[in-house]
Amino acid sequence: MANIILVGFMASGKSHVGQILSQRTGMPLVDADSVIVERAGKSIEQIFADDGEAAFRSLERQVIAELFGQSGQIISAGGGAFVDPDNRREMLEGGTVFCLQARPETIYHRLKADDESGQAVRPLLAGPDPLGRIRELLAQRAQAYGQAHHCIDTDELTPEDVAERVRAVLCPEGG
């Protein structure tokens, strides 16, 4: 069985949708960012602070390459992973890629809710204008995200609805 790959910007719903898909399909969920954190022995925020984005992206490439040595998984990739041409090629060849998309305002409100609930602040959004930074990063990543096999707008959908849309694409006759 081929891999199901979830890509898209932070707070687009990749992890939550991945969990639901895993429960409904019985396929294991692998969160690439969690693998990176485990391997580095520190949080993504700490990797960025201690070693910089280039070191994080290098580790991310290693993890992506390893993950695609197997099949039958649901893989949730970090928000910037699909932008890297080598990662993107691995993903597009290693399964069906779904890009989960949301408007900048939706992403901002989801991240703000995460921050208020004690979730970690995202290193790429540190600064005085996080909404502006979200817009900027989405514009930079639009071409890469557009190369996914399928795109799903998550703005008005629950994670359960998104998971059902993924399943409908993979099993159009309800199988």
Task: Please specify the SSE layout and strand pairing.
Layout: E1 3-8, H1 14-25, E2 29-31, H2 32-40, H3 44-51, H4 53-67, E3 74-76, H5 85-93, E4 95-101, H6 104-116, H7 130-145, E5 150-153, H8 159-170
Helix pairs in contact: 1-8, 2-4, 3-4, 6-7
Description:
With 175 residues, the chain is α/β, with parallel strands linked by helices. The chain has eight helices and five strands; from the N terminus they run βαβαααβαβααβα. The mean pLDDT is 90.
Question: What keywords describe this structure?
Answer:
alpha/beta; 5 strands; 8 helices
Determine Rg (CA atoms, Å): 15 Å
Low-confidence segments, given as residue ranges, are none
- Tell me the series of helices and strands, N- to C-terminal: EHEHHHEHEHHEH
Mean pLDDT over the full residue set: 90
> Major sheet: order of its strands?
2-3-1-4-5
How far do the termini sit from each other? 14 Å
Q: What's the number of helices?
A: 8
Helix content: 40-55%
Strand element count: 5
Biggest sheet layout: 5 strands, parallel
Rough outline:
globular
Strand content: 5-15%
Structural class: alpha/beta
Can I get a quick summary?
By secondary structure, this protein is of the alpha/beta class. It is built from eight helices and five strands, in the order βαβαααβαβααβα.
